[in-house]
Amino acid sequence: MARVSAEDRRRQLVSAAFRVIGRDGFAQATTRAICTEAGAPLASFHYCFASKQELLGELTTQTLDALADARADGTHIRGDVAESLRATLRFYWQTVEDDPGRESVLMALTQHALNDPGLAGVAEQHYTAYHRTARETLEEIAAGCGVTWDLPVEQLARMFIVVTDGVTLAWLVDHDSAAAVAALDAFAGQLATFAGRSEP
Amino acid sequence: MARVSAEDRRRQLVSAAFRVIGRDGFAQATTRAICTEAGAPLASFHYCFASKQELLGELTTQTLDALADARADGTHIRGDVAESLRATLRFYWQTVEDDPGRESVLMALTQHALNDPGLAGVAEQHYTAYHRTARETLEEIAAGCGVTWDLPVEQLARMFIVVTDGVTLAWLVDHDSAAAVAALDAFAGQLATFAGRSEP
DNA sequence: AACCGTCTGGGACAACTGACCCAGTTTGAG
DNA sequence: CTCAAACTGGGTCAGTTGTCCCAGACGGTT
């Protein structure tokens, strides 16, 4: 077994845990399974982490950060609002198709965080970050297209999230990509009707 | 410990499992926890069910049936399409608020079914039933309001599910009922724009 | 080369879980 | 009342899991 610094081991174990959860589900993510996946000795687990809980915390943080990064530049300005929304939603969808495991993991983490008192607030934190990103995206689109939103942007942000989460959840079940994209396009057109001409 | 017929025990254990999952999450739903919740002796578990798997199957079936029943008469025809959609979505929402545990359980079951090879297809089955209900609802509304849908009803049904699932998922995280209802109302207005006047 | 902190190997351990068992008690049909 | 079927009590059992332990191997510094 190669000798690896504790710092690198932490990273390896976290990303191994990510892969295991994405592939086999949360329940299968045992310390042994994670170490095997990482190619690490079992002893290194509690050498690097005080507990499994600590690894899960690290995993959650990293996953949410990666998510924020991936979607920070997800806004796409096109000709008009409808096109911009469509392009942005399609870009989001591309990130889902590119790495469906991430969505599985996010869903599993959310589900788990809702029940585990030790992770109370994690789901809310996840959701708040998600909401902020959606709001920023909508504001950028409005600014880029020279319009204002007829509804409070907070409400539109929630609708945006409802659409992305809902479409993703449905796809995780039936893997119907065509239907997912069609739904996203339709919602893009719908949400665009909330844009009004900006006062000069 | 009171003596109860095996048939009644089955029912007790299933509803106890439902309560445990809703309250403490799927992982905590051990045979012992379920029996304690039901006030049943541990031995009755494997007297009534061949395995835990069998109880979960029964639980899934009953939960989906109850869901179908609860929403079978969930369609509400009002003055126009927008109002009808709003009333129908609000009625759906009432069922969620009345029993948030059911949604938690459904989400947990779905999540679990996606990963457990032994329950392969259960999530799809759940989703298919859900889809059929949505389609019927939309067709009833169209008929009741004397309109036709401009989009294939299958696509609208998916959008309907995306909205309900998305709103529910968001609410499970932040419990913001006002925002949930506002989002549903907004989506009702949006979906109504897909209705065209029926050809006489 | 000698040394000391860092990491690994190969276990061990108690707790918990699903499943099983069977003698004994209760119940209801005859 | 009798008696077989139905149900319960109080265990056992093997497997898994999170956590822990410590002797030894490694590797960079002196």
What would you say this structure looks like, in words?
Two copies of one chain form a homodimer. In chain A, helix 1 crosses helix 2. The first copy, chain A, has 200 residues and is mostly helical. The first copy, chain A, is 76% helix and 3% strand. Chain A has nine helices and two strands. The relative contact order of chain A is 0.11. The first copy, chain A, has helices at 6-24, 31-38, 42-48, 52-72, 81-98, 100-115, 122-145, 153-174, 177-192, and strands at 147-149, 195-197. The interface between A and B is large, with 43 and 43 residues. Chain A binds a DNA duplex (30 and 30 nucleotides) through helix 3.
What features would you highlight for this structure?
mainly alpha; elongated; 3% strand; homodimer; two-stranded antiparallel sheet; 200 residues; DNA-binding
Gap between N and C termini of chain A? 67 Å
The largest inter-chain interface, given as chain pair and residues per side, is: A-B, 43 and 43 residues
Reported for the largest beta sheet of chain A, the result is: 2 strands, antiparallel
Q: Estimate the mean pLDDT confidence of chain A.
A: 92
Low-confidence stretches of chain A: none
Give the strand tally of chain A: 2
If strands are numbered along the chain, what order do they take across the biggest sheet of chain A? Answer: 1-2
Structural class of chain A: mainly alpha
Name the overall outline of chain A. Answer: elongated
Put simply, the count of helices of chain A is 9
- Succession of helices and strands of chain A: HHHHHHHEHHE
State the helicity of chain A in percent bands: over 70%
Beta content of chain A comes to under 5%
Alpha-carbon Rg of chain A, integer: 20 Å
Give the assembly state of these chains.
homodimer
